[in-house]
UniProtKB/TrEMBL annotation:
Domain Phosphatidylinositol N-acetylglucosaminyltransferase subunit H conserved: 88-151
UniProt-recorded name of the protein: Phosphatidylinositol N-acetylglucosaminyltransferase subunit H conserved domain-containing protein
Keyword rRNA processing set for record: no
Annotated source species: Tripterygium wilfordii
Membrane-spanning parts: 36-56, 62-80
Length: 181
């Protein structure tokens, strides 16, 4: 099991089928108090003006203040919480690759990619003006665009490399020339 501050990675091997899970969350509870403080700090900053309003403007209605605090905390929780619980890649060597995205609501989105369409897996370094991150994608036969494997999450490189190696070791992936990847 590999982990980082935001994500944890686990791998299952059932016969020839490889299942790779990347979950949102920490692999241990060390420093959970600090993480809770970081998550609650926007809420505390949002509630501070309301508390000052309560003490400075005493003629305001307390019920309006409480309802606005409740509504504001609900909005902050929605903004902080990621809707994705985990993303999984299931490698079926003779058939293809199945991508699964599990949401916090319980909804599961599945997408199957047949082995005939896959040319090879690639690791990409993505640069934006504010950040740099790694991504794992598949080169697809007959398509100009790459297929991103982790569309919602951005796991670090140390989590992506074992998945990339497992995809490279699938024996039925061939290039357009007939050469094995």
């Amino acid at each position: 099991m590999i982990g980082s501050r935001r994500y944890s990675y686990s791998q299952e091997k059932r016969n020839a089928i490889g299942v790779h899970h990347v979950q949102v969350g920490r692999r241990s509870d060390v420093g959970a108090g600090l993480g809770l403080l970081v998550r609650l700090s926007p809420l505390l900053l949002l509630l501070l003006p309301y508390a000052l309003n309560l003490f400075l403007l005493k003629d305001k209605s307390l019920s309006i203040l409480l309802w606005s605090c409740l509504f504001s905390s609900f909005i902050v929780i929605l903004l902080i919480r990621k809707p994705v619980k985990k993303e999984s890649i299931i490698i079926l060597p003779a058939f293809g690759v199945q991508l699964e995205t599990h949401y916090l609501s319980g909804k599961v989105f599945r997408h199957f990619i047949p082995i005939e369409k896959i040319l090879k897996p690639v690791l990409l370094e993505c640069l934006t003006p504010t950040t740099c991150y790694w991504s794992l994608a598949l080169m697809m036969r007959g398509e100009e665009e790459l297929m991103l494997l982790f569309k919602e999450l951005r796991p670090p490189l140390k989590i992506l490399v074992p998945i990339w190696k497992a995809l490279k070791n699938v024996p039925t992936l061939f290039t357009e020339d007939g050469q094995q990847c």
